[in-house]
Request: fold
Amino acid sequence: MGRIRNGANGGFKGKAGSVIGSSWKSINYIKGLYKKRSKPASEEQLMQQAKFSLITAFLFPIKALLRIGYGLKRANTNTGMNMALKANINEAVVGTYPNYMLDYSKIKLSAGGLFTAGSEAISRTGTELTVTWNTTVNAVSGNTDDSVYLLVYHPASEQFLTTDVVPLRSDGEAAINIPAHITSGEGHAWIFYAERKAKEVSKSIYLGTVSFD
Reply:
């Protein structure tokens, strides 16, 4: 049975006849009951489902990071994960159905107007990755205490790597430890910046690949 909130003109929660009422982020929704599909999905629908599954599988493990990277974009009606899906599904998923793949260079982990630092680069020495960036700041380029978020993905093991502690813009560099079991293949790296309270973020930068061989 549905429960009406705030009088007859308010939203309701639960099932009422052929509709279901719910609320998310203080917004009331009404939707029809699910109807079992009576005909097979079209090829276009299958293509979109395949794209969605591929990009979701990549983004889901880092949804906490996406809450920072996309947390300011329509945060009252969408989650960071939803915004990241919308930003990446048509750009980062490439190839021909059913053989879709990810173009890692086109994946965006954040969106915003905060200035990046410049001179971002990644290198490897032994069992450690080092990411460096410019520390110069001025009235429009950010603050010394901006957080710097780093991410490395190793497709062969489907594992994400990052720093133990979130570095600051003023640090100029940060190290990422390579797990002992990762001894071959390559990784893909990204960086983005966020104001100390994450009220402003930058666009993410793809740093390229790094070899683990």
The chain has a mean pLDDT of 88.
